[in-house]
Amino acid sequence: MERSQRRPTDLDARQIAVRVGDDEILVSWHAPNMPPEGQAHGAEGICVTDTADVVVISRDGRRWELPAGRREHGETWEQTLRREVREEACATVVRARLLGFSRGEYVAGRQSGTVLVRSIWRADVTVDPWDPRHEIPFRRVMPAAEIEGALDIARHPFAPIVRRALHEAGVAEC
């Protein structure tokens, strides 16, 4: 099957070479039943409202991303998700469903030898009043049909992982 014909579900544990700056990373998708080996690095949420819209955030008002961040000491994967969504998107997680894990093995560059694992969730949320107090100054709530364009999937370095997450969350056919 050609690369363009692959389905998001063809990714399970298959490593994909990605370059981000000077780093070469082998990224892979893993099912939610067991985190892969590596350093627990945080959580990312596909935040869906009760009207099936998706919440995205931005540091500059031009490049949009999903709320995500690193664990704080002693947090579980889900606690990290809930805190990051509250801090970055001013939203409250009502229900969370673990979709899977992304694993990044740095094979070249300044982080060579590091293996980071991130949990990826569908977070059903209520959108709270916008009151940014952390590093994220912009938020958008958009129809799910616009999410791939907003995330600039065509140029996103981790496009296969993001597509798989959107597919698992039920917000994009990808």
CATH-level-4 superfamily name: Nucleoside Triphosphate Pyrophosphohydrolase
Q: How far do the termini sit from each other? A: 16 Å
Record field, number of beta strands? 8
What is the CATH architecture annotation?
Alpha-Beta Complex
Main sheet specs: 8 strands, mixed
Q: How many individual helices?
A: 3
CATH class reads Alpha Beta
Which structural class is indicated by helix and strand composition? alpha+beta
As a percent range, the share of strand residues is 35-45%
Mean pLDDT across all amino acids: 92
* Rg for CA atoms: 15 Å
Quick tags:
single chain, 174 residues, alpha+beta, Nucleoside Triphosphate Pyrophosphohydrolase, 8-stranded mixed beta sheet, disordered N terminus
Folded structure, characterized:
The protein is α+β, with helices and mostly antiparallel strands and 174 residues long. The chain has one domain: Nucleoside Triphosphate Pyrophosphohydrolase, CATH 3.90.79. It has three helices and eight strands. It has helices at 77-89, 147-150, 159-169; strands spanning 16-20, 23-30, 39-48, 53-58, 68-69, 91-108, 115-127, 138-143. Strands 1, 2, 3, 4, 5, 6, 7 and 8 form an eight-stranded mixed beta sheet that branches. Strand 1 (16-20) and strand 2 form a beta hairpin. The longest helix has 13 residues, at 77-89. The radius of gyration is 15 Å and the shape is globular.
